[in-house]
Design a protein that fits this description.
The structure holds 2 protein chains of 2 kinds. Chain A is an all-alpha fold. Chain A is about 85% helix and about 0% strand. Chain A has one domain. Classes of the chains: A mainly alpha, B mainly alpha.
């Protein structure tokens, strides 16, 4: 596990959550740059998932495999699922859904770090 | 909180659109995390705290049913959703109180322990918002 990467991911996810929340408050739908940011975060999450799997295979720490893998899988599924569910709505609430998905990603990656250490 | 567009759709189509989508997303996150947690607990360490883990599994089932029912249109979906959300509210209040009174019976946490403190008290707030939303989008008699 790369601690710095986890913190960057959590920070980026929180930033995108605030962005989406601001969009919901301002009554606008998710914007292009916002969705691009989420795509970048998703790629980084996939990289992190690969790193996590490799680290799990090599480590001799007492890490619960099922829990760790569960969180890794959740970390890469949340954004696509939230985005699909969110952008289908033609109102501010699409941004509300995306805010929840981004916040959940932040929680999940921080939990990963907690399980790891 | 709800835009005019949403209000025009009320109540027939509205339960799973607008704010309803946010609510369903929140319930889905809890359904997923509670199920995963209960699954791991039951599979790996059931013997150490059977009561807490059975409650974890029950809570997970309630969230799954609530999520599906909130996303289902029609009167039956509404009735199931109201029932599930009420069970959820009773569950979080009961388990929350029990965990305060008798910590020993709950050596390991469930979603509802101490009114959902481990989850930022969202488990306590969610059913209240859920009932409010279901009241708003109730099927006309």
């Amino acid at each position: 596990m790369v601690d710095v990467l986890v913190w960057v991911l959590a920070g980026a996810a929180l930033l995108l959550a605030v962005w989406a929340l601001a969009g919901a408050v301002r009554n606008v739908r998710p914007s292009g740059p916002q969705l691009a940011g989420m795509a970048v975060l998703e790629v980084a999450l996939l990289v992190q998932a690969v790193i996590g799997m490799v680290a799990l295979a090599r480590t001799d720490r007492p890490v619960s495999t099922a829990t760790f893998v569960g969180y890794l899988v959740a970390s890469v599924l949340l954004l696509p699922a939230g985005t699909l569910w969110g952008i289908a709505d033609r109102s501010r609430w699409g941004n509300g859904v995306i805010a929840i998905a981004c916040f959940a990603v932040a929680v999940v990656v921080l939990r990963l770090l907690q399980i790891w250490s | 909180m709800v835009s005019d567009v949403d209000r025009e759709q009320l109540p027939a189509q509205a339960r799973r659109s607008g704010f309803g989508r946010v609510l369903i997303a929140a319930y889905a996150v809890f359904a997923l995390s509670a199920s995963a947690r209960a699954g791991v607990q039951l599979a790996t360490e059931f013997g150490s705290a059977p009561l807490a883990y059975v409650l974890s599994a029950f809570a997970a089932a309630v969230y799954v049913v609530a999520t599906a029912a909130l996303a289902t249109s029609g009167r039956r979906g509404w009735l199931v959703a109201v029932t599930a959300v009420l069970v959820e509210l009773v569950g979080v209040l009961t388990v929350g109180t029990f965990t305060l009174v008798d910590r020993a019976a709950f050596p390991d946490a469930t979603v509802w322990s101490v009114y959902g403190r481990g989850y930022g008290f969202v488990p306590l707030v969610l059913p209240v918002i859920g009932l409010w939303w279901l009241h708003r989008t109730r099927p006309s008699a």
